[in-house]
Design brief:
The complex is a heterodimer of chains A (about 190) and B (about 375). Chain A is an all-alpha fold. Chain A is built from nine helices and no strands. Chain A is about 75% helix and about 0% strand. By secondary structure, chain B is mainly α. Helix content of chain B is about 55%, strand content about 5%. Chain B contains 15 helices and four strands. A two-stranded antiparallel ribbon of chain B has the order 1-2. In chain B, strands 3-4 form a two-stranded antiparallel ribbon. The chains are: A mainly alpha (about 190), B mainly alpha (about 375). The interface between A and B is large, with 53 and 36 residues.
Chain lengths: ~190, ~375
C-alpha cells in the first residue's frame, strides 16, 4: 500500500477506535470482499459465510484497539476471520470420524490440478463440497499455512488426524476437479 | 505470496516449493480472491454495532457524571434489608422494655412494706432487765434503743457523762421524745435547763471522773425536748473545786406512768435532795436511788434544791393535780399510757419502714 493509503488506514483505525461508524463502514468497504471469500471457504453455505463475515467484522471493530500495527491490517483482519470461523466450527460442527490414510501423499502432487480453468465460484464450490473437517484442515494447511501441530491444537484433534484429513480432502478435491473437467469436456464435444 | 498465518511476507521460497501442487494452486487462486458480499450484511452489522454502543453508553454516561453514583443493591436484597431494619428496631424496643422492667421491679421492691433490710447500726444495744413496775415507756425505750438511734434521740438524752451515762441516756431519750406535746407545753424547764447548763460547768458523777458534756447538752437540746430532762446544776462560779450536779434525769420523768416512780420522785424531791446522779445509772437504780446526790463539800444544798424545784414546776403541778383527783386517779394515767404505747408503736413502725425503705433504695442504687 502507498503512504497515502497507510495514512488513510491509520485515520480509519483511529476512527474505529473512537467508535465512529463512518470509519467502520470504510474499513468494511475496503476488506469485506476479501474476507467474504475467506468466509466462503470456511463456511459450508453462503448463509454461514455471511454470518461469519458479520461476526468477524464486529470482532474487528471491537478489538481494533488491540491492533499493534506490527503487520498489515488486512492480515490482522484475516486472522480474526479465520479464528472466527474456527470458533464457529468448534461450537457448531463436530469433527467427522477420521481414519488414517496410508496412501502416498506425493502421488496427488504429481497430477495436474486443472484449477486454472475453474472460476472462483467453482473453486469455492469444490471446497464447500468437502466435509467440514476436511475443509477446515485443508483451508488452514493449504491456504493459511498452519502446520499440522497448530491445526491439531486449534481444532482439538491429533496431528495424525490432521494429516489424514488433509490427504482425504486433497483426494476429494482432485476427484471433484476431474469429474468437473469430464463434464466440461462432454459439454464441449456436444 | 503472503504468509497469512503469521501476517508477514513469505521470505523463504522453499516453503512454496515444498507445498503440494494442489495446495499451491488453491492458494494462488483463492488467496487474493474477492467477492463482494450482499449489502444487507453491512446494514445488519452496523445495527449490531449501534445496539452494542447503546448498551455501553448507558454505564459510560453514568460514569462520566460528576456526582458520585451510590452503589445500588440488587432487588433480591431488598427484603433482607427490611428484615435487618426491623430487627434493629426490635432490639431497641427490647432494650427499652428491659430498662422499664428493671425500673418497675426496683420501684416495687422499694414500695413493698414487708421488705426486710439489714441495717447496720453502730449504736450499742443495751440489754437490761426491766423491773416489774416499768411498763410501756421502758419497753418503748428499749425498742428505740435497739432499733435505730436517731440523732434527735441522742440529742435529747442529755448525756452528761460520756461513758457512764450512755445506757441510761439512751433509755431516757425516747421517753423524752415520745412526749413532745407535754414537753413543749412546759415553758419553764427548757430555758432553765439550758441556762443552768451553760457550758462552763463540769459535772462529776459518782465513780466517774470524766468531764461531763454539759455544753453539748445545753446546745443540742431544744427547750421543749429538754423539758423531759431536768438537769439541775448549781455551781458557784467562784468555787471551781465544787462540782455539784443536780440532775433529775430519768427515763420516766415526765412520762405519766403510774408505776414509774422515778419521775414523780424526782419531781417531788425535797430541796435537800436535789443533786441527782441518775444519768450514769440504770433506770432501776434511778428509781431506787433517786435521792442519792453527790454533793461536794462546802456547797449548800439549797442551790441544788432550788434547781431541782425549778426544773419543771408545771409538771409538778400537773402531776399533783392528777394524783389528787380521787376516782380518776390513775385512770387518766392508764389511758395516757395506753395512748402513748399505741402511738409509740406506730411511730416505731413508721421509723422501721423509713429505715427499710432507705436501705432498699441504697441497695438498689448500689446494684
Amino acid at each position: 500500500m502507498s503512504k497515502a493509503n497507510n495514512h488513510t488506514l491509520e485515520s480509519l483505525i483511529e476512527g474505529c477506535i473512537n467508535n465512529e461508524h463512518a470509519a467502520q463502514r470504510a474499513i468494511y468497504q475496503i476488506f469485506a470482499a476479501k474476507m467474504f471469500v475467506i468466509c466462503l471457504r470456511y463456511g459450508k453455505t453462503k448463509m454461514v459465510a455471511e454470518e461469519l463475515l458479520q461476526t468477524g467484522f464486529v470482532k474487528v471493530f471491537k478489538s481494533i484497539i488491540h491492533f499493534r500495527q506490527e503487520g498489515s491490517l488486512e492480515g490482522w483482519i484475516r486472522r480474526v476471520m479465520v479464528n472466527t470461523a474456527i470458533e464457529y466450527y468448534r461450537q457448531s460442527v463436530k469433527m467427522m470420524p477420521t481414519e488414517s490414510l496410508q496412501e502416498d501423499l506425493n502421488r496427488a502432487g504429481n497430477e495436474h490440478s486443472g484449477l486454472d480453468q475453474l472460476a472462483l465460484e467453482d473453486l469455492l464450490a469444490l471446497i464447500a463440497g468437502l466435509p467440514d473437517g476436511y475443509r477446515m484442515v485443508f483451508n488452514m494447511y493449504a491456504i493459511e499455512g498452519f502446520s499440522h501441530k497448530e491445526i491439531a491444537t486449534k481444532l482439538g484433534i491429533t496431528e495424525g488426524g490432521s494429516k489424514s484429513q488433509l490427504s482425504r480432502a486433497r483426494q476429494l478435491l482432485q476427484f471433484a476437479i476431474k469429474k468437473r473437467q469430464e463434464v466440461e469436456y462432454a459439454r464441449l464435444e456436444k | 505470496m503472503q504468509d497469512w498465518k503469521n501476517n508477514a511476507d513469505l521470505e523463504n521460497g522453499d516453503d512454496a516449493l515444498n507445498m503440494h501442487p494442489l495446495d499451491q494452486a488453491f492458494r494462488r487462486l483463492l488467496a487474493d480472491a474477492e467477492l463482494a458480499p450482499d449489502a444487507h450484511i453491512l446494514d445488519q452489522m452496523m445495527g449490531h454495532l449501534e445496539e452494542d454502543d447503546i448498551e455501553q453508553k448507558g454505564p459510560r454516561s453514568a460514569q462520566n457524571q460528576d456526582a458520585p453514583v451510590t452503589p445500588s443493591l440488587p432487588a433480591s436484597l431488598t427484603p433482607v434489608l427490611k428484615v435487618r431494619k426491623m430487627r434493629r428496631k426490635l432490639s431497641f424496643a427490647a432494650a427499652i422494655a428491659g430498662v422499664l422492667v428493671v425500673l418497675a421491679i426496683g420501684v416495687r421492691e422499694v414500695s413493698r412494706p414487708d421488705s426486710v433490710v439489714a441495717v447496720v447500726t453502730t449504736t450499742p444495744v443495751t440489754p437490761k432487765a426491766l423491773p416489774e413496775n416499768e411498763t410501756a415507756t421502758s419497753r418503748a425505750a428499749d425498742k428505740e434503743a435497739t432499733s435505730t438511734a436517731k440523732p434527735t434521740e441522742n440529742k435529747g438524752t442529755a448525756t452528761p457523762n460520756k461513758t457512764g451515762a450512755d445506757k441510761t441516756a439512751r433509755l431516757n431519750g425516747p421517753a423524752n421524745r415520745i412526749t413532745p406535746k407535754r414537753k413543749a407545753t412546759s415553758p419553764v424547764t427548757g430555758p432553765q435547763s439550758t441556762g443552768d447548763l451553760a457550758g462552763t460547768q463540769r459535772m462529776k458523777q459518782a465513780g466517774v471522773t470524766e468531764e461531763s458534756k454539759a455544753g453539748t447538752l445545753a446546745t443540742s437540746k431544744a427547750p421543749a425536748q429538754a423539758s423531759g430532762l431536768v438537769v439541775a446544776k448549781d455551781l458557784s462560779p467562784e468555787n471551781d473545786e465544787i462540782e455539784k450536779t443536780g440532775i433529775a434525769a430519768s427515763s420516766t420523768q415526765g412520762a405519766p406512768l403510774p408505776k414509774q416512780k422515778a419521775g414523780t420522785v424526782a419531781t417531788d424531791l425535797p430541796a435537800a435532795a436535789t443533786g441527782l446522779t441518775g444519768l450514769n445509772r440504770e433506770p432501776e437504780q434511778n428509781t431506787r436511788q433517786i435521792a442519792k446526790a453527790v454533793v461536794a463539800p462546802g456547797v449548800s444544798n439549797a442551790a441544788g434544791s432550788k434547781a431541782g424545784s425549778e426544773a419543771d414546776p408545771g409538771r409538778l403541778s400537773r402531776a399533783g393535780k392528777r394524783r389528787n383527783r380521787g376516782l380518776f386517779k390513775g385512770l387518766v394515767d392508764k389511758l395516757s399510757a395506753t395512748a402513748q404505747t399505741i402511738s409509740e408503736d406506730i411511730v416505731s413502725q413508721q421509723d422501721d419502714k423509713t429505715v427499710i425503705n432507705i436501705g432498699v433504695i441504697a441497695i438498689t442504687t448500689y446494684k
